[in-house]
Amino acid sequence: MVLPLITSQPMRTIAVLGGGIGGLATSYYLCKNPQVTKVIVLESSSRFGGWLWSTRRSDGAVFEHGPRGIRPAGAVGRNTLNMVEDLGLEGEILPVTYSHIASKNRYLYVNGQLHKMPSKISELLRTVPPFSRPLLLSVASELLVAKSKEEDESIHSFVSRRLGKELADIAVDSLCRGVFAGDCRKLSVRSCFPPFYNAEQRRGSLILGMLLGSGPTPVISPGSLAQRSIKENWAQWSLRRGVESLPESLTEYLQQSGKVELHREATVKQIHPSASGWKIHLEDGVVSADHIISALPAKALSSVLPSSCQPLIQQLQDVSSVTVAVINLEYEGSILPVTGFGHLVPSSEDRGLLGVVYDSVPFPQHNRPDGQTTRLTVMMGGAWFQEVFGPPEAVTEEHLIARATEAVQSHLGVTTSPVWSRVALQRDCIPQYYLGHFSKVASMRGFIRENNLPLSLTGSSYDGVSVNDVIFSGRTAVQELLGTGV
């Protein structure tokens, strides 16, 4: 447990490095704290919002180049909805309930065929392809598996041991490609799926962990919007003008707060300790701050820290990330042979293709209003990008579009060509939590504490890669720094 660094005097100036959703959320929580008098946000690109990036076409169609649906579940989900409500965005929410076809129908593409994943108890009782035995057998026998004494384990090893190799090879391999664009044989179960690890450690079983709880969770009181999500049984939600509306509203909130200076195209070149905190060197000047909260990717932070932070620099450099090609496609008419959220592809089937999201099914409101169209997003690369496509800087958009449309044709039987397409090559967009990630992060924060560095780490490199996790990480950083509730 990190002890709060309780300050006896107001923090005069806090610099937030990075203006993605992590940096913006951190600044939002800083604004709400009376101890803070000034916040300076430094973003290297020309826009705020990071990976939350939407294209709004003039005819009303909306396409997402990053996250597209946000889950309302758990403390972190409630926390985000409370923020959305505070920003006045509740009227923009597009909820998808658990009873919606996009929630009930999720597919895997295995052995050249689409297979619907079991979503009802009756489907767990019988053998459903591509699995060779009823999933309930795997689940029931899990209760008898002894718990591991290892400090960490790969997701593939954990699931193989507890639920069987087939589930790990097909379902979990696909899931990790969909969520992390990563290889479940390398990713850490403790860092990527903490509830699974904690369930085994505390209850000796995933099933008992789900039934009895797997340990303490943060307490977040649900506001009226979060209460509505529980009552209406939301599985996920988006916003009418796309998820980029969230960082846009945060940016507007910060501008109107009177406490925040927002700087675009402000690349941090170097940071140096000073008598009162830090001197932050930009291309065209120097900014002084009492404290820095970094929402930069770990590698980016490592390149600007002073050499006196050498052990920290090395550990930050060890957090690698993967590149994902996101290809948005629009087709005339209703072209899907099945309806659902989309399908994932295990690495054994196609290493380069991670999955296809049927965007028009969960969010038809994002289709152009006139005429029937189908919007799809094809996701490619991830941990396999270099192996399949070569260096990101050398791959052409034409090649990626051809590969994406070919997948839509072979997986979904679509014979027409898309009428519109857009490629977003998201370089180093998802950090990979490899084995031992949790101890590496604890060691980084230990170094900061032991050396009394006026520095906090937040963002997707450390405590979870989802939008909810990143927002909550910003809230936690502010609470630990200022020692008060938000």
Task: Note down, in words, how this protein is organized.
- With 486 residues, the chain is α/β, with parallel strands linked by helices.
- It has 18 helices and 19 strands.
- The chain has helices at residues 21-31, 74-86, 101-104, 121-125, 135-142, 155-163, 165-180, 189-192, 194-203, 206-212, 224-231, 245-257, 298-302, 310-317, 385-389, 397-412, 437-450, 467-482; strands spanning 11-17, 36-42, 54-56, 62-64, 93-97, 106-110, 113-116, 234-239, 260-263, 268-274, 277-282, 285-289, 291-294, 321-332, 342-344, 353-357, 373-382, 420-431, 455-457.
- The strands form 5 sheets. It has a 7-stranded mixed β-sheet.
- Helix 1 (21-31) packs parallel to helix 12 and helix 9 packs across helix 10 (206-212).
- The protein is globular, with a radius of gyration of 23 Å.
- The two termini are 18 Å apart.
**Percentage of helical residues?**
25-40%
- Main sheet strand line-up: 7-6-15-16-17-14-18
Query: What does the overall shape look like?
Result: globular
User: Helical region count?
Assistant: 18
Beta strand count: 19
Strand fraction equals: 15-25%
Structural class: alpha/beta
Please outline the major beta sheet: 7 strands, mixed
Low-confidence stretches: 1-8
Rounded to the nearest angstrom, the radius of gyration is 23 Å
Average of per-residue pLDDT values: 94
End-to-end gap: 18 Å
